[in-house]
Amino acid sequence: MRKSIKISFLFIIIFLRSYCGYTQSVSDRFVAPFLHEIRVEGYLGKKIDACIIKRVKAQDIHEVIDPFRHREETRYWQTEFWGKWITSAISACEYTGDNELRKIIDDAFTQLIKTQSPDGYIGNYSSAARLKQWDVWGRKYTLLGLIAYYDLCGEKKAFNTAKKLLDFTMTEIGPGKTDINKTGNYRGMASGSILEPVVLLYNRTGEKKYLDFANYIAGQWEIPDGPQLIPKALDGIPVAERFPVQNESQWWTWDNGQKAYEMMSCYEGLIELYRVTGEKKYLMAVEAVVKNIIEDEINICGSGAAMECWYHGRINQAYQSRHAMETCVTMTWMKLLLNLYRTTDKAEYIDQFEISMYNALLASLHPDANTFSKYTPLCGYREEGLPQPGMTHLHCCMGNGPRALMLIPAAMIMKSEEGVVINLFSNCKYKTTLPDKTVLVIVQSTQYPKTGEVSIQVDPERQKEFTISLRIPAWSKIIELKINHKEIPVVNESGYVKINRLWSPEDKINFILDMPSRVIFSPDGSKHFAAIIRGPVVLVRDSQNSDGIDTDELVTPVLNQDNSIDLVEVPHSENIWMAFGGQFYVGSFLEGQKNKPITLTLCDFASAGYGWKREARYRVWLPQLLDPSKK
């Protein structure tokens, strides 16, 4: 049965991509796999599988649909949850071929479309409050869900429902109507992020009115009384300085132009519009803003923002920040990186994606995989966060966390014009068809990033010449590369080693990545704090480890000349994924022989604070000793 589902999915998606009005003028450099083509195993695979079962399938569908039945809202965002949930559920269904989940999705779709008014509106805002606060934001997520359902099964009702909702929205917003910048908070960015589904619907219909509306939205981002997302990006204005507010009372209002999640959601739509129009300034704006976010905002664990807004977070990350690392920010950042990578083929975006995946994202997932934290601080403890107004227990990050996890299979292995690109290293099996219909199976076996050793079996059904590109992380180098036990030279081409050859069934690639440890000092240059990274994984002090030293004690790493620290894997509890011992000087008061270095245990950031109890404290940035006798 699962095989027939896979074939059905494949036929539908190929049909949609080939015949349903796609009008992209710019082709992606890489094509993500159909999700049924890949199966992720090992540590990452277990996390994905557990989340699908305990968070996605376990969702009470009535909870996400019920808000649409009561049109009394004036302030909040309950209608985002259906779209968030169903997009993750559809990805999970495509990935697993789960018939039971498919029935749940079908029911969620059927129940949702019953709430559509004759005029096309789907939402929960009162007539007097329409277009205010989060109304259009909710419509965006509804459109994304309807489009994803149409792509899943070709259901015309989904297609027509989405068109009717967007057509209704276009009667309210546009030239001579309500200015989209004046709807909702944050200079209209929440509403403006509807650009993404507008372009996606244009791709599936070819109807010019949708492209015209998309161009209108992007145009409003350039006027003085809007968020100026394009001109400020091109002018190099940092995201933390986009219309900064003067006091706390303005923080959650239209005046604040620094809101991270909504801003990145708009740039997601701009990438889609670039793909359709080929307008280079759109891509230039997205690349410029991503460059600024990397350099100025993203912290050591691959996320950013405090109080959900940009704040020059990179330089401030060693200090405690209020409501840091919202999971919605992490997810949207990862999605933006992945889309930009597919468009530009720059390995640096996958480098950033991997850091976010192993650290910020996996740390936000509860050990039981049934929920996600709203905020994931770099010091302290973890907790889920409060439910959002009008919801029984859901908050925004519980909807976005599964969406982020489902990006991992899509990023792991992709196809290019040359052949296959392997971006992420994990136990997995990938089965695809090359352009000449040759069936290709790739199987990865590895303990990465615990170790740097990776084995890849390449199994075309017959001999076939093509290129396999292996990503070399920016922090590493390949120190050994063999094909069928024969060593070959490594040439780093823009972050990849490209192997072109006539591949035969059961060929094997074996390589070893260097896994350096790096000690990073306070980004503000003060050296008041130090943090430790091994490969892509941030290591932390955690109260679970029974080394007898308080988590907040001064611990100074014993450095090698290259600012690395010697680390040795040590035994650890089953609650921890990886743990290493390193040498540290402890305390500020010890004298003589007592001030010799001792071995302390560090664990991966994702495992820290296990159980989300207040006594389960951890710390990324370790306070350092100030010694006035040393210059």
Task: Give the helix/strand layout.
Elements: H1 2-19, E1 38-40, H2 42-56, H3 61-65, H4 80-96, H5 99-113, H6 135-153, H7 156-172, H8 189-192, H9 195-205, H10 208-220, H11 229-234, H12 260-277, H13 280-296, H14 313-316, H15 327-344, H16 347-364, E2 379-380, H17 396-405, H18 407-412, E3 413-415, E4 419-422, E5 428-433, E6 439-446, E7 453-460, E8 464-471, E9 478-483, E10 486-487, E11 496-503, E12 507-513, E13 517-521, E14 529-534, E15 537-542, E16 555-557, E17 567-569, E18 579-586, E19 598-604, E20 618-619, E21 622-623
Helix pairs in contact: 4-5, 4-6, 4-17, 6-7, 6-9, 9-10, 9-12, 12-13, 12-15, 15-16, 15-17
Strand portion: 15-25%
- Whole-number mean pLDDT: 93
**Rg calculated over all Cα atoms:** 25 Å
Low-confidence stretches: 1-21
- So what's the CATH class of the largest domain? Mainly Alpha
Q: State the domain count.
A: 3
What's the shape? Answer: globular
Largest sheet: 10 strands, antiparallel
Structural class: alpha+beta
CA-CA gap between termini = 70 Å
Q: Count the helices. How many?
A: 18
Work out the number of β strands. 21
Fold-level CATH name of the largest domain: Glycosyltransferase
Specify the CATH architecture of the largest domain: Alpha/alpha barrel
- The residue fraction in helices comes out at 25-40%
